[in-house]
Amino acid sequence: MKVVLVCSYRLPRMIVTGLSRFFAYAGYWLNSKNSQTVLTNLKLCFPALEKRERRTLARQVVAESALMYGEVVDAWMGSKQEIESKIFEINGQNILEECRQAEKPIIVAVPHIGNWEYFWHWLQLNYTAISMYSPAKFDLLDEVMFKARTKFGGKPFATDPKGIMGLLRALKKGGIMMILPDQAPREGAGVYTPFFGYPAYTMTLLHKFIGKTGAQLLFGSCIRLKDGKGFSINIEKADFPFEKREIDPFNLAMNQQIEKIIERNPEQYQWSYKRFKRQSNGITPYQ
C-alpha cells in the first residue's frame, strides 16, 4: 500500500487524474455499488429533482470524486511548500482570530465536502490543531495516515476513553479541534436527526464537547476551485445559538447548517458515504 502511494505521488498528476477518472466513470456506467450509493443518497436528499437531473448531478459527483485520490496522495506525501501552494483562498480566518481573542476553546466542524485533508493541513500549519483519530484497517496505510496528520504539528487523539480525555484537556488548554460532524457514529453514540429531511443517525459527541468545555463552535470547509488546481479554505460562525442547548434542537440546527454548506457545492460532497445506513426500523435504504 505504501509503495502504491509513493508511486502515485511521483507519477505526473495528469496520469494519476486520468486513471482515477477512468475507474470512476467505469464504476458509474457499470452501476457499481459506489455509484448506486451516490444515486440513492441524491434521491433521498433531493427528492424534488427529476431522475434526469439526479443523473446529471451524479456524473458531476463522479467527476469531482475522481480528483480525490491524487489530492489525498499529495496531501499525505507532500511537503509544507507543496501543501501551501494548493491553498489559494482563505475566507473567514478573521472569525477564527476573533474567537481566539475570547480565550475560550474552539471547535471547527468540517463536513465531508471538497477535501477535508487540506483543511486539516491548513489548521495544523497555522494553529495548535487537535482532532479525533480512528486507525485504518491496514497497518501500513495507518502509518502513512498518522504520519501525514501529525507532520505539521497536529495532534490526533484516539477515539477510546483515554483519547477522549486527552482531547478534552488539549481543548481546554487552547487547542483548536477539528471534527467531522456528518460521520455516522457507532451505535449508542448518536440520535436520529433529519438530514435533508431524511433520518440520519447523528453524533452526540460534538454537543457533549461544547457542554463540557464551553467551546465556541465554527464551521469550516475546503472547497475545490473550478480549475481543479487548488482549494478555498472557508470558516463561518454557527448560525444558531449552540450554548446550553438540548441535543435534539442542537443537532437539527447543526445538520441544517451543514446542508447549507453542501448546497453551495453539492457536486463536491461525499455522496458515496452511506450516511443513512443505520435506521431505527433496521431497514437500510441501500442495496
UniProtKB/TrEMBL annotation:
Tell me where in or outside the cell this protein is found: Cell inner membrane
Entry's Gene Ontology cellular component terms: plasma membrane
Q: Which Pfam families match?
A: Lip_A_acyltrans (PF03279)
Whether RNA-binding counts among this entry's keywords is no
Citing just one GO molecular function, the answer is: acyltransferase activity
Any one GO biological process: glycolipid biosynthetic process
The record's keywords, sorted A to Z, are: Acyltransferase, Cell inner membrane, Cell membrane, Membrane, Transferase
> Mainly resides where?
membrane
Per the record's keyword annotation, is Acyltransferase included, yes or no? yes
Q: What is this protein called?
A: Lipid A biosynthesis acyltransferase
